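Problem 3 from the worked examples.
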Amino acid sequence: MVERRGQTYTVLTNAHVLQNVGTYTVVAPDGKCYSIKPDTIRALPDLDLAVFLFKSAVPYSVARLGDSKQLTASQTVYVGGWANSGGMLQSRVFFTSPGQLTEVDSQLPSGYSLSYTNLVRVGMSGGPVLDQESQLVGINGLIRLNDEDAIVGSGIKIEQFQQWHSQIVKTIPLPSASAIACPRNYIN
């Protein structure tokens, strides 16, 4: 969650996470679930980023946005997300991983400019990239091989979102309150 206006929250994630048509569910920090209607989702142009809104009377904390322009190679960052647990469990678990930035200005498609050594797993797309002060500096979303065939995580700088934020959010209709029963395949 990157913004709160009254009881309306703005959530930032990857566009590819929300590419299937339909209604989605977001799990809030307290474990409550909210239905996300398709008309509250907006993709950001030329970026693998999207925002959506949900409404809740619960006062959730929102992320503190950092200055991704100040990032440097070898800086420690933390990546989190709802990783697939694998095996027969068919559940998701929130996973965090420390690592170091290896690139801060990669020229990868869809706005990916951060690369890091953090262990990232399938399902963590749309999760936060945090600096050492726990400020949101990017959105994780890509696992790739580098020139040495090593697995590298990649993310999009938060400044990419900030450039579009006010233009995009004002086009989204306000959601109605929509707390729902949570799916069984999440482990909190």
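Problem 4, a separate protein:
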Amino acid sequence: MRLPGSSSLFPLAVLAMLAAFTFWLERASRGEGGGPNPNLRHDPDYQVEGLALRRFNLDGSTQYTLEATRMDHFPDDDTTEIREPHVVYFRGGQTTTMTASLGILDKTGDHVRLKSEVRIVRSEPDGNSVVMETDVLDVNPDAELASTNTPVTLTQGRSEIHGAGGLKMDNKARTLVLNGPVSGTIYREQAK
């Protein structure tokens, strides 16, 4: 038994399904659908060898320099990888130097993640340097803020402190907070 008008609905249903499939296929080919887009692999679209960059303060003095052996930009996620970054901040005759094996810059440029063999050396007015070492460091370059949740080792002279919960550093305010638990050995300097 046939329902009245069912023979005229079948071609419309087939056309609707074909239109929906065509729409899905077009979106999937552009990478807007649920599947991966093979055209956007994680391959660099440009590379820079021997990078050297300077950022200036409003008064014309150098805020920081960045040098790296290589920089690669990836269009799929709009990130930039920096190989062997070497950053030096200049503030009131003192410097803070940050080095790592790798730096990953986000698409806005407001956040850099330093990874592997991260080392921070901060000069002090008395000539002693504070050295901090960790595995990962998140840096806001323009605000001169840095933080990590990974363990940190801080050394100054023979003194050594370990912050198991990471650190927060404000280079402009010259403050450093180690997150606990914190342990270490602090030696007094001998009077000369």
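Solution to problem 4. The chain has a mean pLDDT of 85. Residues 1-39 form one domain.
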